[in-house]
Amino acid sequence: MLRKPILALSANTKVRDILTKAPVTRAVVARFIPGDDTVKAVKTVADVRAKGMQVSLDFLGEGVSTLADAKATVAAYVELLDQLQAATLIAGAEVSVKLSAVGQSLPGGDIIALEHARQIVTSAYSRGARVTFDMEDHTTVDSTLQTLFAIRQDFPDVGVAIQAMLHRTADDLEKLTGRGSRVRLVKGAYNEPEQVAYQGAENVDLAYVRALKILMAGDGHPMVGSHDPRLIAIAGQLARESNRTPDSYEFQMLFGIRTTEQERLAAEGNTVRIYLPYGSDWYGYFTRRLAERPANLLFFVRSMLTK
Ligand code: FAD
């Protein structure tokens, strides 16, 4: 019920200023975002790997407004990949990229984002890592899929996040279930209007299950991006019915959320990948986490009042 108002309020610049400048914020943010820089990110990767899980790293930032910032994002990913390789943590690692962080929203953005995404993908693949494109709000889906299909001509298993809440998803999945196609299915974290997206938790969950069935029955590599116990159980059941082996699909969860469940799934022999955001531009990511669970907001407000 509070999800939409929180997302709408978080777009207000005054709220942004208060939240980002409050001294207590960084401490609360650390639950979801382990660090600001590459050194801390690589150290956290080592911790996650020691628990038998893999990672997908996200250099935080979105909607860059200058070409220089877009280029800086590319440079940050290349530096990260270098550091992962130097620390012998590159095998099986993945980076997650928001195309709006590499220029998608600039004038001529489709071409800029394609070129920048290609640089990151080339750098990752040359070291043995993989890439998945995050999905942002519904206005970016066509452009993101266009970029994905262009890049897949050279790198066929580049992954993409698909949002179950969008009405268009069943149609999009028809083009995404081919051999080796890596698709991360998520509910969708953005404030979407009813013209394009299912409203209400139950409708979104039902759409998620329909999409899961398509992915598990297909020839691709489904990546179940959810913390929802019911959906995780259904995904396991569908995988068994499709005779999938644990290396042919995976569970993905966000850093800091349901960690006991993450470790339980890994201990049972499942492939588990932790989405690991790092960097100083954490506001958008953080407020989406607050919106997903109002209890996070209460915890945050209480921390501010008691400091
Ligand atoms: P929910 O019903 O929201 O949560 C189920 C349970 O998980 C809750 O009851 C609670 O116990 C726990 N939980 C969930 N969220 C939180 C939280 N913030 N804090 C504390 N506990 C929580 N969305 C996009 O739109 N684009 C993307 O590219 C994208 N990438 C993602 C990548 C991964 C690996 C994951 C896991 C999610 C991603 N998301 C993305 C976010 C996703 O769309 C959902 O908003 C988010 O996962 C919450 O939905 P849920 O399936 O976990 O179910």
Give a description of the structure.
By secondary structure, this protein is of the alpha/beta class. The chain has a domain at 47-52 and 82-98 and 120-275: TIM Barrel (Alpha-Beta Barrel), CATH 3.20.20.220. It has helices spanning 3-10, 13-21, 25-29, 38-50, 67-86, 109-127, 141-152, 169-174, 201-217, 229-241, 259-267, 283-292, 294-306; strands at 54-59, 94-97, 130-133, 159-163, 182-186, 221-225, 250-254, 272-278. The chain has an 8-stranded parallel beta barrel with strand order 1-2-3-4-5-6-7-8, surrounded by 6 helices. It is globular. Residues 134-135, 161, 163, 184, 186-190, 225-228, 252-254, 257-258, 275, 289, 292-293, 296 line the site of flavin-adenine dinucleotide (FAD). FAD binds at residues 135, 163, 187-189, 226-227. This is proline dehydrogenase. GO terms for molecular function: nucleotide binding; proline dehydrogenase activity.
Low-confidence stretches: none
Record the strand order, biggest sheet.
1-2-3-4-5-6-7-8
Give the name of the CATH architecture of the domain at 47-52 and 82-98 and 120-275: Alpha-Beta Barrel
What characterizes the major β-sheet? 8 strands, parallel, barrel
Rough outline? globular
Helix-strand makeup class: alpha/beta
The percentage helix is 40-55%
Helix and strand sequence: HHHHEHEHEHEHEHEHEHEHH
CATH topology of the domain at 47-52 and 82-98 and 120-275: TIM Barrel
CATH C-level of the domain at 47-52 and 82-98 and 120-275: Alpha Beta
**Helical stretch tally:** 13
Q: Count every beta strand, where a strand is a DSSP E run of 2 or more residues.
A: 8
Strand content of the residues, in percent? 5-15%
Gyration radius (Cα, Å) is: 18 Å
Mean pLDDT: 94
Distance between the termini: 28 Å
Distinct bound molecules = flavin-adenine dinucleotide
InterPro entries: FAD-linked_oxidoreductase-like, PRODH_bac_arc, Proline_DH_dom, Proline_oxidase
GO biological process, one term: L-proline catabolic process to L-glutamate
Binding site for FAD: 135, 163, 187-189, 226-227
EC number: 1.5.5.2
